[in-house]
């Protein structure tokens, strides 16, 4: 019996948004090829751009990137 539940997983990387997406696809193995990013009309937490991450019709998280103050970082947050 597991006593731990991951309800939020977040990380940041210096990889490009495209390379980050490809990395997520690898982590999610069997369903990874179904992961899509859909651009949002605004940034997030100081990032200039953001995109919803989904598998099929299910929203699973957010990717944010861009902006001089972010110094090349890409932020990914997967909700539980």
Can you put this structure into words, describing what you see?
With 80 residues, this protein is α+β, with helices and mostly antiparallel strands. The protein has one domain (8-79). The protein has two helices and five strands. The chain has helices at 17-27, 29-32; strands spanning 8-13, 35-39, 49-55, 58-65, 74-79. It has a five-stranded antiparallel beta sheet with strand order 1-5-4-3-2, covered by helices on one side. Strand 4 and strand 5 (74-79) form a beta hairpin. The two termini are 19 Å apart.
How would you summarize what this structure contains?
The protein has 80 residues and is of the alpha+beta class. The protein is 19% helix and 40% strand.
Radius of gyration: 13 Å
The tally of domains stands at 1
Structural class from helices and strands? alpha+beta
Mean pLDDT: 92
Task: Give the SSE order as H and E letters.
Answer: EHHEEEE
Q: Sheet bearing the most strands, described? A: 5 strands, antiparallel
What is the share of helical residues? 10-25%
